[in-house]
Predict the 3D structure of the following.
Amino acid sequence: MQKKVVVFSQIDSAFLAQLQEQFAVTVIQPKLGDVNAQLREAVVDADGLIGAGRILNEENLSTAQQLKIISTVSVGYDNYDLNYLNKKGIWLAHTPHVLTETTADLAFTLLMSAARQVPYLDQWTKQGQWTRTVGTAQFGLDVYGKTLGIIGLGHIGAAIARRGHYGFNMRIQYTGRKPKPEVATAFNAKFCDLDELLQSSDYVVLAVDLNDQTKGMIGAEQLGLLQPHAVLVNISRGAVIDEAALVEALKARQFFAAGLDVYQKEPLKESPLFELENVVTLPHIGSATSATRHAMMKLAYDQLIDALEGRTPRYLVNQHF
Ligand code: NDP
């Protein structure tokens, strides 16, 4: 019997067509109304799910009778209830590596944009305010030779460290659950605790995954440790920072600026952040280049096919139930 696949977010039309050639495919369509109700109905006889950006848990998966795999087109998997998937023996595959360099590029884009006030000065120039030589309000911060603190020296964190070390001659320090000499030695990176990193870095970049320990790890107290000239960049997940505390700290100009790609609630449609000049806001585009999104989609597609054809996908989050 033909297997069934549920596509739970918008995906590349070429991959959708390939899926439709091989499987019975149901595409979840938010414009048709209640997405959870659509999911509950669609997953009943589904063998595989593919997509990204949707919370999948017992509420919308409990009707599934034969679900083998969810293939997420993302490296982060905080949208998925792993305990539930483990209990049900449902594989979750994700897409590490293929987006590492692109996301590290974006972290550096945010870092430099915040340091040199790029969005503010872009608007300032376009508004015709450049009537004479710029003054101190338009001055930014040096990046070259400064101290870069990375919270979470994983794949992306290491790629950011490499840019800082080789490209900008920065001193690299990092914090995490344990020292990682096998990665850190290449960048001469120093391991320190979170407080020390916040107090002594010129640039702080968050590159952790979202989990019980990292949720809310940067609150008012931690923001208070940043130096007045520091720049904070978050490309990980919004919930890692207490956003209300961040807004207050930025309003009070406790530190120089922030560069954000991720938020507690996405999409970010209204926010006090929009009123602030010392924050650069991007719409969760860490991996969003054509080539990288294509590579992620291909990897997610291949892993879905692997599972449906009886092979073990390469990047499983939860292999052992
Ligand atoms: P990795 O798993 O390679 O890296 C995550 C790092 O976070 C690991 O080094 C891990 O440490 C560390 N970490 C986990 N918990 C803690 C903790 N409590 N304290 C300190 N460090 C901790 O993943 P990637 O580098 O590939 O991706 C990281 C995250 O970036 C993703 O999970 C995703 O949320 C986000 N992301 C965002 C994108 C965007 O578009 N903005 C694009 C891609 C990813 P350990 O080595 O000890 O496990």
Remarks:
- Residues 290-308 form the longest helix (19 residues).
